[in-house]
Design brief:
The protein is an alpha+beta fold. Helices cover 55% and strands 14% of the residues. The radius of gyration is 23 Å and the shape is globular. The two termini are 40 Å apart. Bound molecules: adenosine-5'-triphosphate and magnesium ion (MG).
Length: 328
Amino acid sequence: MESPECKQRPSLKFQVFNSPFYILWIIVLIVLFSESAVMIVLSFLKSFLSPNPFLHFILLFVFLFPALYFFIYQLLKFYQSQREETQNLNGKDSELLKRLQEQKMKEIEVLVNSVAHEVKNPLAIILQGIEYIKDKLKTEDGNVGLILKYMTDAIDRADNVIMGLLEFAHFSKFDMVPSDLNSLMEKALSFMQIEFDRHRIRVMRDLEGGLPPVQMDKKKMERVFINILLNAIQAMPDGGTLGVKTRLKDSGEAKRAVLIQIEDTGIGIPKESLDRIFGLFFTTKRESGSSGLGLAISSQTMRTHGGTIAIENRVGSPGVRVTLTLPV
Ligand SMILES: Nc1ncnc2c1ncn2[C@@H]1O[C@H](COP(=O)(O)OP(=O)(O)OP(=O)(O)O)[C@@H](O)[C@H]1O
Ligand SMILES: [Mg+2]
């Protein structure tokens, strides 16, 4: 018998392409990232000594980046809503509904994967073009170097968004192995040591010895730690203290978990932002090049490990406390 909830749910058809609006944007994107984009770059390379060589590039950027961001943003939003819908399916939903939902997620993964692939190649060509121009162009105009730098930064940002997108939609498989959490944390901390020194941040370690091994994808978990450490550093530009604590939380055999707490003494998070910080593309640091993907990806990774992430302002002192748990 059909579950009543089935009737209430919107169509399970692949909705990304349902509106002409999306189709228009996809056409725009395909045109921009296809051969024509490459041709524009190549023709620019040939004519880089002409009076206004940057016009081609500027035109390319004006059209390319809004299209890229808009498309990726829509795609990710859609992906997230579908994920949440899948996760909200509970025992009452029919098996058929779950299977359709999973099928739809797979289709989205394939789409995201191919879009990311198509976008990365033209970006790499543009980047090579910029490097070539940097070497060859001799000009008195000091702005030229600056413009080339802005372009390189913009490409780096777009590349980061694409990498984040791939990670968020987890295309690369999770490689779960029993791992020592403390040594992974030590590795992440030593990776960030230069930044701690640069910002005069003191690191206080309180890592419990003898923790049981935790099943995890080490690379992905390290990325979570680094995302959180980076946020803490960015919240303490003029120095502060970073506290890192690990503990075994033993509330009965069935609920054993390890707990990781990372605290900073930084600017804290305004109350009104607290429930938005895990959202895709939510950032208060856009002008410094942040894309607002760090916590969205981190919470996704924690969920995939059967763990949790919680972020709160510290009580009675400035700064933020991030609490992660992982089952053991
Ligand atoms: N330790 C922290 N202190 C203060 N604010 C924080 C902290 N951690 C996160 N935030 C807030 O949460 C927002 C979202 O964080 P998130 O890591 O997802 O994105 P981001 O750091 O802005 O960009 P990205 O990580 O993609 O470079 C941040 O822009 C910041 O406003
Ligand atoms: Mg971040």
